Amino acid sequence: MLYDIITQYTVSTMEMKMRTILLSMQPYWFEKVYSGEKIYEYRNKFSREEVCAYIYVSKPICEIKGVLYLGRREKLEDWKLKYIDNIKVMDRIKYYERGKNRYAMPINRVEQTNGIKIEDIKKEFPDFLIPQSYYYLDKLPILSFLQNKIKLIDIIENQFDDVDQICRLYREEDENGLGD
Predict the structure, then answer these.
(1) pTM
(2) Alpha-carbon gap, residue 111 to 14, rounded angstroms
């Protein structure tokens, strides 16, 4: 009982200190994250701080579905120094850089939730904009709306001890492009 109270307090305190964003993601990548298979998010630009991210899943889903807790961004350039002796990891990092990714954010925690349809959001917030990449939700009225509508289904806490997760390739065409 006491452990549950302390854990709940710690998580709530952690959430209060984090900024909150709405992050756009394609369905393919969302499924990889949601299943726990993908544990890093790669972007060209991203916040320097840890963030709590509500996920907007693009067409054909068109829902806000799931919450991620992303760690501080790490430069892929720094990973090249860290993994200089691992040829496979170095090849994958270079491949990700060719795709215009500069940063990796560890997905520390995935909260699997119900979905909120875009139509339902637009009923309450007619000016709602779908993010191209992400935007901050702090101080916007939609944040409390999302907090009230999202229902937790399950939680995944990711582990980062497997070097094969660094710039992991998920599709066969990615693996074929490694030598390019």
Answers:
(1) 0.86
(2) 15
